[in-house]
Amino acid sequence: MKITRCESNPIVTPGLYDWRKATVFNPAVIIEGDKFYMIERTAGSLDPFQCFFGLLESEDGVNFKHVLDKPIIHPEQFGFPYGSIQDPRVVKLDDTFYLNYALRPCSMSYYPTGVGIPNNSKPVYPDGWGEEDVHWRTRSSIATSKDLINWEFLCDTTPLDINDRDNILFPEKIGGKYALLRRPEEFIGEAYGTEKPAMWISYSEDLITWEDPILFATVEQEWELKKIGGSTPPIKTDKGWLVLYHGVGPDHIYRVGAMLLDLEQPEKVVARAPGFIMEPETYYEKFGLFIPNVVFPTANVVKDGLLYIYYGATDTAICLATVPLDELVDYVIAESEKG
Q1: Could you give the dihedral angle defined by the CA atoms of residues 194, 294, 243 and 220, in that order, rounded to the nearest 10 degrees?
Q2: Mean per-residue pLDDT for 55-73?
Q3: CATH superfamily of 4-337
């Protein structure tokens, strides 16, 4: 499968403002009107590693500029002054933008090793923050907006006693219900039907109360042996919902896979390519400030039949790759049939 990396990569890099001088990565992107809008995850330092969301816009999906010189979301506005807000994914239903995000009530400090997951420590915060285990546990939530600038908290989508990341809404209701991809890390073992963190789906009539999750995709290949999870909002095609997902292998490398889910019952996998469609290849995907060997898509949009894939590279910068949507869908189906 030929995925074309943008010649301008990385297209968004750290700097310019204090709140994004250390790193930018894992964005949400949506097309509204004639413009691409990007919500970037940023950090001003690694000690502590407190993350914010900034907003950028672009005419062509490649050259982005900031809409504001300050974050559109700071963890403090949701009640967590020392927290870290992470990995936005955005969809629009009717006239409202829905933003999935992960949030840790207290920010960790990180010390890159250059060979894998960085070392970390827990800073000391005032007023009792950091004294409870739940303060260091990631929860997933939804915020809403009418203009991509002013956001309000809507709900937590997962229980606060587990780490449940990679929550991603489908861009439309299915069977009259909202649908949500999930990756609960603690749902492993014989009772759950998977030995490694896997992909689940939940449904809700009101976005507030969610039905029990359904397991639909587990680890199958060596390149995803440690865990898998949803990456980008599903794209509706006439052959199924296209879902890009990430897999982490025993070599700690983050790669990208693709599958198609049934349009009416997305808990059913229609096709799944056994091999990955992207892996770290370039210098900026193999070496960076934070974690090496990472391509981590969190956004995809379609314009003129071309799928724009936006991804974080080594948790350091934001990059873009493109592929004709129909070609990728046909590839997933063909590879799935081969086994």
Answers
A1: -30
A2: 98
A3: Glycosyl hydrolase domain; family 43 (2.115.10.20)
Q: What angle do CA 279, 192, 154 make, to 5 degrees?
A: 75
In angstroms, the CA 320 to CA 309 distance is: 6
Amino acid in position 152: E
Q: Name the residue type at position 181.
A: L
* Tens digit of each residue's pLDDT (9 = 90 or more) over 16-59: 999 999 999 999 999 999 999 999 999 999 999 999 999 999 99
- The residue length of the chain stands at 339
CA separation for the pair 82, 155 (Å, rounded):
20
Q: Are 260 and 239 in contact (CB under 8 A)?
A: yes
d(CA 87, CA 288): 18
pTM for this predicted structure: 0.97
The stretches of the chain forming alpha helices (DSSP H) are 283-286, 325-338
Mapped onto helix, strand or coil, the DSSP state of residue 18 is helix
CB-count exposure of residue 324 (10 Å: 0-12, 13-18, 19+): middle
> What CA–CA distance (Å, rounded) separates 204 from 213?
10
Tokens found for residue 276: 């990955």
What are the residue boundaries of the structural domains of the chain, listed by start?
Answer: 4-337
Residue 7 has a CB neighbour count (10 Å cut-off) of 8
